Structures are given as C-alpha cells and as structure tokens.
Automatic annotation (TrEMBL):
The lineage of its organism: Eukaryota, Metazoa, Ecdysozoa, Arthropoda, Chelicerata. It comes from Araneus ventricosus. One of its GO terms (cellular component) is plasma membrane. Residues 45-130, 134-220, 246-320, 325-360 form the Ig-like domain. Coiled coil: none annotated. This is Hemicentin-1. One of its GO terms (biological process) is axon guidance. Keywords: Immunoglobulin domain, Membrane, Transmembrane, Transmembrane helix. One of its GO terms (molecular function) is cell-cell adhesion mediator activity. Pfam families: I-set, ig. The chain crosses the membrane at residues 20-39. PANTHER family: BASIGIN RELATED, ZWEI IG DOMAIN PROTEIN ZIG-3. It comes from the Eukaryota.
Length: 374
C-alpha cells in the first residue's frame, strides 16, 4: 500500500524483485503518479484592536493561509454584506483582504465576518469590534437657590461606552482640593440623583458631579447650592442725611449677605415709580434711592425690600424734608377803637413747623412778648 501526502506527488518506485527472462536478470522500475487530495481552504484568525475609541481608525486583515486560486473575499457585519464606500474601505490583494473603518462611531460596534471562497472550498472567521466612547454629559445642571426646609432632587446624567459611573461629591469647606462623597444620592448606570431633603443652611456649598467609564479622562462639573435660613437675610440699617428743600437726598440699601438680591423701594406703602426728581439705581448687592431736588411732598416713610432665593427682608426709614419758614398768613395793620377786642392773624409754614412769636414794641424797646404755637 502506498499512502498519499497532502500535496501532489510524482514518485518513482523500484520493484526490487528480480525476474529472469531469457537468462537475463532485470530490475523492474515502476512509476507511480500519486495525486493528493485538494488543498483545504483556510483563513488565518484575526481581530480588531481592543481599545477602539469613537473617532479613531480601525482595521482588520483577513489572510488566506491555504486554498487554491481563484480567491474570493467577502466581508459581512452582523450577517449583512459590507460594501466599500464612505468611512468603510475594503482593500483586497491576491490572498489578503483588509477592512478599514476610517472613523468609527457607536454604530460601528458589531461582529465582522470575513468569508473566503476558492475553487476547492470556503472558510469564514468572525471577530467582534467593540467601540468605546468617552463619558459625555447628556443633561444640564445649574446652581440652586433654596429656602430652608425645601426639598430638591438634582439629576446628573452622562453617556458613553461603556456607560460611566456617575457620583456626586461635595467640596470641602476647609480644604479647597478635597471632595467628600455625598451619601444622599441615588446612583444608576450613567446617572446619579442628588437628594437634598428638608434643606438647612449647612447644606450650602459647591457640589461636583463626576462621570468616569475609564475611557479617556473623567469629566466633572460643579454647581453652587445656597440655602438661606428664615432669618439669614438682613438689611443693613440706613437713613437719609439732613435734607433741605431743593437739595439732593440719597439713601443706600445693602444686605448683610453680600450676595446678589432683588431690590424694591416703597413710600408710604406704595411702590416708588421713577419720575422727574426720583431715581433708583440698583446693583447686584446694593440699591441707591436718589431724590433731586427735594420737595415738600417727598417727606414720608421709605422702605427698602430685598428678595433672595425666596427669602424677603425689609427696612423702613423716615425722610423729613427741612423747609425754611415762609409766611402762610401775614398780619395787616388794624385800626381799632379804644376798648375794642381785635384778633391779629399771623401764620408761618415750614418743616419743622415754625414757632410764631409776637413782639410789642414802643419805639425801639420791646415791652411784652406773646408766643403763639400753631
């Protein structure tokens, strides 16, 4: 029995038995042609890089390590044919086919199969492409202004491949670089809810939300939470300076917090509207009420009302416009008969109310004084 090899063989075999023909010894040479079975079609295993990130290039090389020509390569993704075009390129040489994705995205993830067909058979090999994406935010968070006792839930949410772990931390009040993991939070894949229940002023501070999926650098963002107690907003006492008719008067309203607040001015219970001689100039942390020039009608009770994060405070002061004395009723000369009663009216006006004094003189000498208050 003559066994065959995997390749075509052409061998000579010698029959060493001697045969005597006509007295001549001959050695018989026998030539065998042995045709091996056809070569088996085979693909060399391949794979994609293990850490392919969105935006990067990815490629896989499919190599035929056995098989008779002609060789026909075909690429599939999740069982469907891939055609060369756009971001995907297929480059095939004689016994090699390369699949190139110029810029991968999330949709590039999948199972990629190289199928090889030859004249004597076929083979295929499948490799997964797992695209990774760095963490990215998918919602917005913002600073919070709260009153003591309020409840609030703040959702911080991120995406990525794989889904990142999201966690809330609070900045330390004593060490600027230190953060403390917040216990009052609910964490799920790709998200975390900060839970502030029955808030107190000590809940105020800077809160940092961090997302990390070990692809690229972690991402983080910070918000400021400010909780005002019921008595935490106070107005610094103020008053008008001595104010004289026709001059300018200014009052400044500011708070003890030094934070941005909303201001409102009231006179005798009614909102002050800007008009000819009254102007309100408000800034983030203070407000000036300017009255120029002063009139008698400007006297009254002025109230500054401030509001911050739902908390309101007010302060009231009085403006008394000083008005120089002026005659309201001037007396006139009177002719009277001896023994007759007469009344002489003399009345002045001003602020404060002036005192009216009668003097009786004879010549240059005053002999009596009568004081009358109005």
């Amino acid at each position: 029995m003559i066994s065959t090899k995997s390749k075509s063989m052409h061998h000579l075999y010698m029959n060493k038995s001697k045969r005597i023909i006509y007295g001549i010894s001959l050695v018989t040479m026998v030539e065998f042609f042995v045709m091996a079975s056809a070569a088996r079609t085979k693909i060399q295993p391949f794979n994609f890089p293990s850490n392919v990130i969105v935006g990067q290039k990815a490629s896989a090389t499919c190599t035929a390590i056995s098989g008779d020509s002609p060789l026909e390569f075909r690429w599939l993704k999740n069982g469907k044919d891939i055609s060369s075009g756009g971001e995907v390129k297929v480059r095939t040489l004689v016994d090699v086919s390369v699949l190139v994705i110029e810029s991968v995205d999330v949709s590039s993830t999948g199972n990629y199969t190289c199928h090889l067909r030859t004249s004597t058979g076929s083979d295929s090999f499948t490799a997964p492409l797992d695209v990774k994406e760095p963490s990215r935010w998918i919602n917005n968070i913002q600073d919070q202004d709260l009153k003591a006792g309020e409840n609030i839930t703040i959702l911080c949410q991120a995406n990525g491949l794989p889904l990142p772990k999201v966690a809330w931390r609070k900045k330390s009040e004593t060490e600027s670089e230190k953060t403390i993991l917040v216990e009052e939070q609910q964490q799920t894949a790709g998200a975390s809810k900060l839970l502030l229940i029955n808030t107190r002023p000590e809940n105020s501070g800077y809160y940092e939300c961090e997302a990390n999926n070990n692809v690229g650098e972690p991402i983080s963002r910070i918000i400021n939470v400010n909780v005002l107690g019921h008595n935490s907003l106070k107005i610094l006492p103020f008053s008008f300076p001595t104010s004289v008719l026709g001059k300018r008067a200014i009052a400044t309203c500011a708070t003890s917090t030094g934070e941005k607040v909303d201001f409102r001015w009231i006179k005798n219970g009614k909102d002050i509207a800007k008009h000819n001689n009254v102007n309100v100039r408000s800034y983030p942390d203070l407000s000036n009420l300017v009255i120029d020039p002063l009139t008698e009608d400007d006297s009254g009770n002025y109230t500054c009302v401030v509001t911050s994060r739902g908390v309101t405070a007010s302060y009231t002061t009085t403006l008394d416009v000083l008005v120089p004395p002026a005659w309201k009723l001037m007396p006139n000369d009177v002719d009277a008969v001896s023994g007759e009663n007469i009344i002489l009216n003399c009345q002045g006006t001003g602020q404060p109310q002036p005192v009216v004094v009668w003097h009786r003189t004879i010549g240059m000498r005053m002999i009596s004084v009568v004081i009358i208050f109005f």
